[in-house]
Amino acid sequence: MRSQLKLNLLKLSYLAAATILVTATTATVATVATVAFDGDPSSSASAQEGPPLRDPPELVSNDGLLRVQLVVERRQVDLAGRKLWALTYNGQYMPPTLRFRPGDRLEMALVNRLGMDTKLHMSTNMHTHGLHVSPSGNSDNVFLDIRPGETFDYVYQFPENEPSGTYWYHPHHDPIDGDQVAGGMSGIIVVDGLKQYLPPDLRNITEHVIALKDFQIEGDAIKTHNVSISAPTNRTVNGQLNPTIRIRPGEVQLWRLANISTNIYYDVQLQGQQLTVIGHDGNPVGTTFAADHLLLAAANRFDVLVRGGPPGTTQLQTLAYNTGPVGNQFPQVNLATVVSEGPPMPPVALPRTVRPFEDLSDATLAAQRTIVFSENATQTVYYVDGKVFDPNRVDIQVKLNTVEEWTILNTSDEEHSFHVHTNHYQLMSINGQPHDYHGWQDTATLPAKGQIVLRTYFINYTGKTVLHCHILKHQDLGMMAVVEIFP
Fold this sequence. Notes:
single chain; mainly beta; Immunoglobulin-like; 6-stranded mixed β-sheet; globular; membrane; Cu-oxidase_fam; transmembrane; metal-binding
């Protein structure tokens, strides 16, 4: 009861601060749409070529160190030619990509300016999603509270065996994480080294970040509070509406697909072509696989090889997707236009393997647990093991250097996006059917009225961390639990 009361009080305490984000206070629900842009983004009609795809600017480590400053502030940004107020890192809706190598050190000064005007006064913090790094102190500590006007110096020391791949960063300040990500606060992290596992002919190929994030509009601002998952929304690639991606016939490119949105799913398809997966949630796969489409639940990433088709134009799309009877129905949407043109490239064989991973199938288990995700749909309250999140309560204790098997049971009539911090896991089965795993991951789709079984090896780091649903509206309304790793 105290936890529920605390959750309600926290929600009320932030309501006033969040609602003053909207400058035009007369805006109604009807204005939360896409009238400022050509057509309905929920339409799957053919799209004309848009502007060239812009990869985000990069901040790159040098001699083992990446030192950055990220300033959090409410700024006007230009999205498809319209000025909108957004929550930004360094003044950008699509902020810099942080790029470093395994074993590097990241020093990040996070400056909170969300209280520097009269429009907003809000605490924040930082989470480096998917990275295997300490959850304590001034590292990936989601329990920190960085108040308006404060600067906090994060330090991350990454292990030499940090997996090479695509990750992302975003705030993790309960219970307004979803509000801040919806406003624009999310960016990409790349741990270099993935190309070294490719055949020599593919190590210098063109690569693109395909960061998928969406926004809804209220007045002259991006909507941040009471964001409806089912409402019409503007799906962007790197902050652009329908950018154009160019590729030569037969050319192989590396695309870093990343769902860095607040709540929604993407079921990504490149019309008429296959996507060859070489990395999943930042982990190089053991065996590559080709797919006609890839489901990116909230927070999922895939590193894929794309081969240019015959000369012509095709669409990168997200297909229609339904998350369950009380979940959400997402429409088919064109995300980008892909143009194959120019002299054809000679054929190059795609790899069949990337990097071996530690298979936990035969590992000795220190414990087996069942963790239940449930919800009260009428009251919009979400639970882990029948409890709403309380940062002062430890829900699960695990021992360092052990392997545990968890059954995650979903009693609700909608899917959830199951995510664990600090350590990746191996997905063993879905609804009782063995999973054809290709490596480890940090986020998985939890079926409605279903279950998944996973195994995790807790290594290197002790301290308090969390597991939660990465549909951030569900997380902020209670679907998160504290995990303590002890020596």
